[in-house]
Amino acid sequence: MVHRWAAAFVAEGHLAPRPMGEHPELDGAELVAWYRAAHRRLVDTLTGAEPDVECFTFLPGPPSALAFWARRQAHETAVHRFDAESARGGAPTPFGIRFAVDGIDELLRGFHARRKSRVRSEKPKVLRVRTTDADAVWTVRLSPEPPVTTRDAAEEADCELTGRAEELYIALWNRRPVPALSGDPELAALWRETSAVV
């Protein structure tokens, strides 16, 4: 459903938000075929679109609407692929380091830059996220307002979350525990409890 919704913005040039639509009343092979058709339409739409296509986007970030939707749907698909593979009991397909770093960046500087973010703290706090396999670090400044995140380590952090990019990517989407943390564990708990994207 999300693939069809996203593809329509690009294919039809919608400039304002629109509802996602209804879930299909399908199951089994019919549902799989419906999903595959939606995914094919999304891929064809993104690869065939003009680079300067104009349409609605809902996060800050990439320089064009096309880049936004390609990035957003790549991470949408990746996280839910992880869910599906985990539900089957097998080992999830690995993510590339660059892809995981980009996904962390989208989550911290995109989703949680919005007013909708519920990751708030009564007193100012600093949460750091640092990858151990890439030169990537984020400083998340928490307050009663939406978080403000920068790609640096410019100040002392109250809590630091560290791990390989892939581990942090999945942990920050609350699919697995944070690989390692130092400092105030209450900030890690605050993230777990309030960071669900709405």
Question: What's this model, at a glance?
Answer:
The protein has 198 residues and is an alpha+beta fold. 43% of the residues lie in helices and 13% in strands. The protein is built from six helices and five strands, in the order H-H-H-H-E-E-E-E-H-E-H.
Name of the top-level CATH class of the largest domain: Alpha Beta
Q: Separation of termini? A: 17 Å
Average pLDDT figure: 96
Strand order of the largest sheet: 3-2-1-4-5
| Main sheet attributes: strand count, strand direction, barrel closure | 5 strands, mixed
The helix tally amounts to 6
Helicity range of the residues? 40-55%
Question: How would you sum up the global shape?
Answer: globular
Structural class: alpha+beta
Protein architecture, described:
- By secondary structure, this protein is of the alpha+beta class.
- The protein folds into two domains: 2-87, no CATH class; 98-194, SCP2 sterol-binding domain (Nonspecific Lipid-transfer Protein, Chain A), CATH 3.30.1050.
- Helix content is 43%, strand content 13%.
- The chain contains six helices and five strands, in the order ααααββββαβα.
- It has a five-stranded mixed β-sheet.
- β2 (137-142) and β3 form a beta hairpin.
- The longest helix is centred in the middle third of the chain and has 23 residues, at 65-87.
